[in-house]
Every structure is written in structure tokens, then in C-alpha cells.
């Protein structure tokens, strides 16, 4: 496959102005919805083959996200694309000012494997809604899901508008040599850096949706039952292979024991067994081996068992963990939950602030001062108070990281903006202009200019 030829064809289509047309955008968004609904079973089967993800999880965390995005843009496209009036300052009277959302052009979306449909198709939908063409490169690690997306999209869409590339590092390295008008990447900070460097060669703008170690702080004033239930759900959803899953817990040492008991009771209640349909498998052997090595048997409070044949790792809680443990040296991205303690709330914030800025952070408390300090004193992409993960499901909030966890954001109108240039236009009348700015300059003109500017 010659990627350069596909991009050339996409550029021709973009230059023809077709993809900017709102009817054209809506027609293809409708078509995508139809194609996804028609092939729902194929998508379920593919992801199940990749890592045993249930239909329930696939619908609730992948397909419904993409369908919701399509519906959002179908409903809101006219208002999102409409030029926005801006105030016109005194110096530019008589005139009017507007901001136009201009499609950036030919875009490249690179997806991650852990939510293969959501993380590839949602940014792709935003790219198309904003009037661009798109080449999508999903992650080769979820190979069946990648193939399913390529099949349903490449069979139903003209490649000069939208094309899915199946491939891994070799293919994406070739693609990254080409000049795109926007690159949207989801994945690890390490690969994010490679993509950023490749984009810099063409001054291509990027959105980087990266990862990191997302903390959950549990204070003594919280409702343990609610905190434990929500953390267990968010941590073990997709077997911990979620970028915004709580990576580790910081709990007030006074309440550590009772909180650990609550965590354990919810893990038991939710019944994550090798035969449970609702418990996803580890994606591949490499990650399975990496995760098993992170489990320090001496520090296991609950769980710790695994079965390599089934790529099953039991939900595992580790206690008495410190920042020197291997499990605290990297993003876990699996069903292992280390629990650290703090003596006072400020110390918990300092522990977080001493490390890279996480993608998410969570706080469980009833104390309003703690809530305020959590928001104002530490930097992280986004998060929740008294919940985990769910901020991502609110399309009215921007989703993205900061520092090591990413650049830029998307979802809802923020996704549209990520793929648009804000073009500023001042439209002036050809009459009614004072002679002030034109030479020759005089002291009198300067006095007036000082007043005006
Ligand atoms: P990854 O960085 O290994 O791969 C992501 C994509 O980059 C894949 O499509 C892959 O083919 C491509 N890639 C791999 N090597 C490359 C190279 N040398 N040059 C160019 N492209 C390359 O990430 P992953 O394992 O798929 O996902 C796990 C990571 O992604 C975790 O850090 C996780 O936190 C993060 N993540 C972030 C979000 C988010 O929304 N912020 C969502 C999911 C995952």
C-alpha cells in the first residue's frame, strides 16, 4: 500500500472543498452510524478474540461512545460550524469580527489498543465532523479489532476521504514521514514523543492523549462503601487496562485497614473469575508477563493469582507499598492496585506533585476544603470527586492530559475544535476611517492614538 498516494488523493479531495460541505459531512456521519450498527456483531466478535471483552463492556465503553459522538455532531454540526461573532474594538470601527472554524485538512489518527474502537473511531468522527479527511491507524496489538475497523470502513468509504491502515510500527513510521495537517495520537508518553518529533518536522499540530499513574485519594471523611465500590469497578473494568483507571490509592493511614476490607468485599461481590464473562483478559503475553512481575507476593493483601494460558490475572490489592516498589515505577495498566498511605491530606498532595502530572486524579472526601486543595494545588488532566473514570463519559467536559499525560483535549465540542483552525476575520467598511494611522505622523495624531489604543 502506497500511503503517499492515498494522502495525495485525500489532499485532492480536501482541496476540492467537498469535505467542508456540511451536507457531505452529515451524509458520511450517518453512513458511519449505519455501518457500525450493521456490523455490531462483527465488532463484538473481533474484540472478544483480542482480549475477551464482553458485549456489555464493548457496547457501554466503546460502541455507545462512538454512536453518541456521531449523534452529537449530527445534532450540533450547524452551530459548531457557524462563524462566531466577536467584539470589534474601537480602533477597528467601522467593522465586524468573526471567528470561522476552518477544517485543518488531511488528518492522521493513531489509536491505542485498550479501547480499540472508542480510541480510534471517536477522534476519527471528530476529524470528519470538523470537515477534514482522515487516515486512521488503529493499534496492531488489538489485531482483530483493527482488522474489523479496516474492513467495515474501507469497504464502505472512499479512500480519498477516509481510510484505515492496518499495520504496526513499520507502517506508521512510513506514514509519519508524510505531511499531515493534524495528528491525533493516543498511546504511551514514550511513543507520543516519537510522534511529536515526527510532527515537528512539518510543523504539524498534534493532540497527544497519553497516560501515566493516576492516583485516587481516600480520606477518613468519605463513605467507604461508595468509595470502594466505585474504585473497584473503575480499576478492574477492562482488567485495569484503562488509561484513566486509578493506578494506585493513597489512603489516610487511620482508616487503611477498614478501607482495604471494603475493597476486598467488593472484589468478591463482583466475582472476577477466569470464567466470568464480565472480566476482560490481559491483551498479550508481553503485558501478562510484565504485570505478573509487578506483583510482590510479600505485599499482596488480596488476590495475586494468575493463569498464563488464559491471560487471566486476578484483581490484586497490594499493601505496605512505597514509591520504591517496582509497581510504583511505571504505569500499571492492569488489575493490580497498590495501596499507599498518608498521615495528613497535604502530604498526599505532595506525594502526587512529586511525580509526573497524571492523566486523571480522584478524591474521595466530604470535606470541602480538601476538595478545594485537590483542585487548586496539584496538576492533572481531569478527574472526579467521589468517583473514578466517569468524567470521561461527560461530553460537555474536555478530555485530555497535561504535561507528561498529554497535549490538547477532545470530546464533544472540544473534539471539533481539536480538528479546526480558529480563523479570525475582521471585515471592515471601506468608508468612515479617520486618517490617524497613516503617515505623516504628528504629535496630535500620537495624542489621539494613545487615547484609542
Ligand atoms: P503505544 O504508545 O504502544 O501505541 C499506541 C499507538 O502507537 C499504536 O497505534 C502503535 O501502533 C503506535 N506506535 C507504536 N510504536 C510506535 C512508533 N515507534 N512510532 C510511531 N507509532 C508507534 O500505546 P498502547 O500500548 O497502545 O496504549 C497504552 C498507553 O496508552 C498507556 O500509556 C495508556 O495510558 C495510554 N492511553 C491513553 C489514553 C488517553 O486517552 N489519554 C487512552 C488509552 C491509552
Sequence-ordered SSE layout with sheet pairings:
Elements (H helix, E strand, L loop, with lengths): L2 H13 L6 H17 L1 H12 L3 H27 L2 E3 L8 E9 L2 E5 L5 H14 L3 E5 L5 H12 L7 E3 L4 H7 L6 E5 L2 H12 L5 E4 L5 E4 L5 H13 L11 E5 L3 H15 L14 H10 L5 E3 L3 E2 L4 E2 L2 E3 L17 E7 L2 H9 L6 E5 L3 H10 L4 E4 L20 E2 L4 H7 L1 E9 L14 H10 L1
Parallel strand pairs: 3-4, 3-6, 4-5, 6-7, 8-9, 8-15, 9-14, 13-14, 15-16
Antiparallel strand pairs: 1-2, 2-18, 7-17, 10-13, 11-12
Helix pairs in contact: 2-4, 3-4, 3-6, 4-5, 5-14, 9-10, 12-13
GO cellular component, one term: cytoplasm
InterPro entries: Ald_DH/histidinol_DH (IPR016161), Ald_DH_C (IPR016163), Ald_DH_CS_CYS (IPR016160), Ald_DH_CS_GLU (IPR029510), Ald_DH_N (IPR016162), Aldehyde_DH_dom (IPR015590), Aldehyde_DH_NAD(P) (IPR012394)
GO molecular function: aldehyde dehydrogenase (NAD+) activity
Describe the structure in your own words.
The chain is an alpha/beta fold and 453 residues long. It has two domains: 3-210 and 404-425, Aldehyde Dehydrogenase, Chain A, domain 1, CATH 3.40.605.10; 215-400, 3-Layer(aba) Sandwich (Aldehyde Dehydrogenase, Chain A, domain 2), CATH 3.40.309. 42% of the residues lie in helices and 18% in strands. The chain has helices spanning 3-15, 22-38, 40-51, 55-81, 116-129, 143-154, 169-175, 189-200, 224-236, 256-270, 285-294, 345-353, 368-377, 412-418, 443-452; strands at 84-86, 95-103, 106-110, 133-137, 162-164, 182-186, 206-209, 215-218, 248-252, 300-302, 306-307, 312-313, 316-318, 336-342, 360-364, 382-385, 406-407, 420-428. The protein has a seven-stranded mixed beta sheet. A hairpin with an 8-residue loop joins strand 1 and strand 2 (95-103). Helix 3 packs antiparallel against helix 6. The mean pLDDT is 97. It binds nicotinamide-adenine-dinucleotide. The site of nicotinamide-adenine-dinucleotide (NAD) has 29 residues, from helix 7 and helix 8. It holds the Pfam family Aldedh. Keywords: NAD, Oxidoreductase. Belongs to the aldehyde dehydrogenase family.
Amino acid at each position: 500500500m502506497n500511503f503517499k498516494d492515498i494522502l495525495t488523493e485525500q489532499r485532492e479531495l480536501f482541496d476540492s472543498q467537498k469535505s467542508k460541505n456540511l451536507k457531505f459531512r452529515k451524509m458520511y456521519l450517518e453512513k458511519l452510524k449505519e455501518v457500525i450498527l450493521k456490523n455490531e456483531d462483527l465488532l463484538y466478535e473481533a474484540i472478544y478474540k483480542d482480549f475477551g471483552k464482553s458485549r456489555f463492556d464493548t457496547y457501554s465503553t466503546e460502541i455507545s461512545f462512538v454512536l453518541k459522538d456521531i449523534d452529537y455532531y449530527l445534532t450540533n454540526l450547524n452551530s459548531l460550524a457557524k462563524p462566531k461573532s466577536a467584539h470589534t474594538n474601537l480602533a477597528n470601527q467601522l467593522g465586524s469580527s468573526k471567528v470561522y472554524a476552518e477544517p485543518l485538512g488531511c488528518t492522521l489518527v493513531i489509536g491505542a489498543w485498550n479501547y480499540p474502537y472508542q480510541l480510534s473511531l471517536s477522534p476519527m468522527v471528530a476529524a470528519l465532523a470538523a470537515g477534514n479527511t482522515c487516515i486512521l491507524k488503529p493499534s496492531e496489538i488489538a489485531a482483530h479489532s483493527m482488522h474489523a475497523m479496516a474492513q467495515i470502513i474501507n469497504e464502505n468509504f472512499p479512500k480519498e476521504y477516509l481510510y484505515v491502515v492496518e499495520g504496526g510500527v513499520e507502517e506508521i513510521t512510513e506514514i509519519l514521514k508524510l505531511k499531515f495537517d493534524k495528528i491525533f495520537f493516543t498511546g504511551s508518553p514514550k511513543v507520543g514523543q516519537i510522534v511529536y518529533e515526527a510532527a515537528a518536522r512539518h510543523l504539524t499540530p498534534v493532540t497527544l492523549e497519553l497516560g501515566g499513574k493516576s492516583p485516587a485519594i481516600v480520606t477518613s471523611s468519605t463513605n467507604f462503601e461508595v468509595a470502594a465500590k466505585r474504585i473497584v469497578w473503575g480499576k478492574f473494568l477492562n482488567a485495569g487496562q484503562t488509561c484513566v483507571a486509578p493506578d494506585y490509592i493513597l489512603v489516610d493511614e487511620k482508616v487503611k485497614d477498614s478501607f482495604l476490607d471494603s475493597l476486598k468485599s467488593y472484589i468478591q461481590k463482583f466475582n472476577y473469575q477466569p470464567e466470568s464473562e464480565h472480566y476482560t483478559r490481559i491483551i498479550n503475553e508481553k503485558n501478562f508477563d510484565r504485570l505478573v512481575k509487578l506483583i510482590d507476593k510479600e505485599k499482596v493483601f488480596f488476590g495475586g493469582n494468575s493463569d498464563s494460558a488464559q491471560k487471566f490475572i486476578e484483581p490484586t490489592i497490594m499493601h505496605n507499598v512505597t514509591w520504591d516498589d517496582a509497581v510504583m515505577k511505571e504505569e500499571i495498566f492492569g488489575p493490580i492496585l497498590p495501596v499507599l498511605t498518608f498521615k495528613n491530606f497535604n502530604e498526599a498532595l505532595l506525594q502526587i506533585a512529586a511525580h509526573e502530572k497524571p492523566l486523571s486524579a480522584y478524591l474521595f472526601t466530604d470535606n470541602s476544603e480538601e476538595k478545594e486543595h485537590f483542585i487548586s494545588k496539584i496538576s492533572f488532566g481531569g478527574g472526579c470527586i467521589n468517583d473514578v473514570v466517569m468524567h470521561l463519559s461527560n461530553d460537555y467536559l474536555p478530555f485530555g492530559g497535561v504535561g507528561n499525560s498529554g497535549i490538547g483535549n477532545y470530546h464533544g465540542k472540544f473534539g471539533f475544535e481539536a480538528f479546526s483552525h480558529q480563523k479570525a476575520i475582521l471585515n471592515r467598511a471601506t468608508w468612515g476611517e479617520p486618517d490617524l494611522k497613516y503617515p505623516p505622523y504628528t504629535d496630535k495624531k500620537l495624542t489621539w492614538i494613545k487615547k484609542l489604543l
